[in-house]
Amino acid sequence: MPYTKNQWVNGTTPAINAPDLLKIEDQMDLNLARLRWHMLDEIYGPHGVVTPGTGALCSVSQSTVPGQSVLVGSGEYRVNGYRMFTNGGTVAMPAAHATLPRWDVVVGGVAILSYVQGTAAVAPSIPDNPDPFTWVSFGLVYRAPNDNVISTGEITSFSKLIPDAMLTDAFAAAYTPNAINHNQHKMVLTGNVTSVAPTNSFVGAKLRLVLQQDGTGGRTLPAAGSWTNFLFADTLTNTGNTANKYWVGEFLYDGAKWVQQGRLNQWVY
Amino acid sequence: MPAQQYIKHPWVNGLPPALEAPNLLQIEEGLDLAYAGGRWLGTDRGALSAGVVSGMAVTAHTPNDLSVAVAAGVVSIAGSRYTYAGGNLAITGADTTQERWDVVEMFYNTGALAVATGTGALAASIPDNAFAGFTIPLAAIYRPINQQFVAPADIRPFSKLARDPLSLDDQGQTGGAIILYVRTNPKQIYTLTSNVTGVSSWMGSYGQELTLIFKQDGVGGRTLPAAGSWTNFKFADTISNTGNTAGKYWIGNFINDNGPWLQVGDLKQWF
Question: pLDDT tens track of chain A, all 269 residues?
């Protein structure tokens, strides 16, 4: 069963007995399984559940009518670089073992929701990922012996959360993209930008700025003098800044200046 | 593998195993590995990939002595690629009265191997990462009391894997309607053996980068279509077929905005 720590009584350490040992082993198994499932990533590309905001994306929960299936919530995830989105769905789980408990893992792959069935045992372990580059884990399901009605208490969240490769910044007239957490930032202009000053700049940092006009367009970028520590090779222009147009620029920080790399593509597509 | 799989103690006739000191020791070791995994492997450098791309296995030296052998391999270090030729790494002598855990690590900034030597104790823990965010762990090594060599059983694989930042995915010779499968590699090269009639992509993700390289075959003269035949691509430049003679290259860089691929910088066309 999902692990719950022993309760201390009146500040006294609980006595250790065999059931405690089982719980401790469960907890350890969970942590080691998390390492095995979640750390084998980025062989080809990002791998995990994308978290652009808040909310339990791709979460696993009890079926509306509890039974041998579970629900997976909607959300976006990456399978070794493949961008996948599930509208949510039902995963039919395999039948419980007649006499022994088991751990199963609810997983997502390329355009498929599925499960990895564990091995039934008196003291079952969480199964390994049979193909770490194919399956992203969403949740663990404890399968009590001969129990084919999966309940909320038997489901444990078990997903690796990853950020998007490009950070979406909320509009700010005084724009301060954070160089240390993402090297790609996007901002939709819903007003004029008055200044640009990256924070946490460090030597060797790269910054790609993707700016897009909103549906109104006509939002302006400031002249080079209002970009803090930027060194431009091109002249900044607001020509062509009609609705939904993009502006893309790449920069490298040399310790003093954000030096323009390549060419600015300014409101041209 | 980041940490070895713990094997639970078997029950006998439906009864849990007796709780004995050796069980406790194994459990504590497993917990320590799990906890250390979180501390060592959970640190990443923003969106930059870091970890072992291939090889780099840590094994006992033959004959067993106060060193370990690190196999040749490739690591991704803060988005750059570093190739290690393989070699031996000296390990500090074991404590004569207490056990210890050490960690073999590689530094991000130099590619240098090092050993994080733990603290001797009667029940030792895996040492913390003193340079969190700047090292890649390769293996944890258990150091029994006064054992002045490293045995194979003392080594716990303990690495994070990463993708190769420099690899180029050769899609072979093609033409016609090209579908880009951008999962496998963000850098793709196609050798054109006929005219390209259209270009589209499959499942590009938000913020994903793509470097697309076309190369003329030995005949040359293979053409790329106008921008209108590229599905979900937004070009700042006009696509040109001028100069598309045998063996010439065409390179474009793009970034995905949850659908459209936006040209980054300028196109390098048939040079």
Answer: 566 666 666 666 666 666 677 777 777 788 778 777 776 555 566 788 887 654 568 899 999 999 999 999 998 888 877 778 888 899 999 999 999 999 999 999 988 999 999 999 888 888 988 887 789 999 999 999 999 999 999 998 888 887 777 889 999 999 999 988 788 999 999 999 999 999 999 888 889 999 999 999 999 999 999 999 999 999 999 999 999 999 999 999 999 999 999 999 999 89
How crowded is residue A173: how many other Cβ atoms within 10 Å of its Cβ? 13
Q: What are phi and psi of A30, to 5 degrees?
A: -60, -45
Is B47's CB within 8 Å of A183's CB? Answer: yes
Q: Which among A32, A43, A212 has the least Cβ separation from residue B163?
A: A43
Nearest CA in chain A to B260: A269
For residues B88 and B53, give the distance between their C-alpha atoms in angstroms, rounded to a whole number.
20
Quickly count helices (H) and strands (E) in chain A. 1, 19
Q: Nearest 5 degrees, angle CA A252-CA A254-CA A256?
A: 115
CA distance A227 to chain B (A): 20
Q: Do A42 and B265 touch (CB under 8 A)?
A: no
Around B261, how many Cα atoms within 13 Å sit in the side-chain half-sphere?
A: 23
Stated as kind and residue range, the H or E segment containing B31 is helix B21-41
CA A11 to chain centre: 39
CB–CB contact A36 B1 (8 Å)? yes
Put simply, whether the predicted model's pTM sits higher than 0.90 gets the answer: no
Interface contact A83-B27, CB threshold 8 A = no
- Cβ–Cβ under 8 Å, residues A113 and A89: yes
Residues of B in contact with A250 (CB under 8 A): 264-265
**Burial (CB count within 10 angstroms: exposed 0-12, middle 13-18, buried 19+), residue B97:** exposed
Inter-chain contact A208–B255, Cβ cutoff 8 Å? yes
Q: Do residues A93 and A99 make contact, with C-beta atoms less than 8 angstroms apart?
A: no
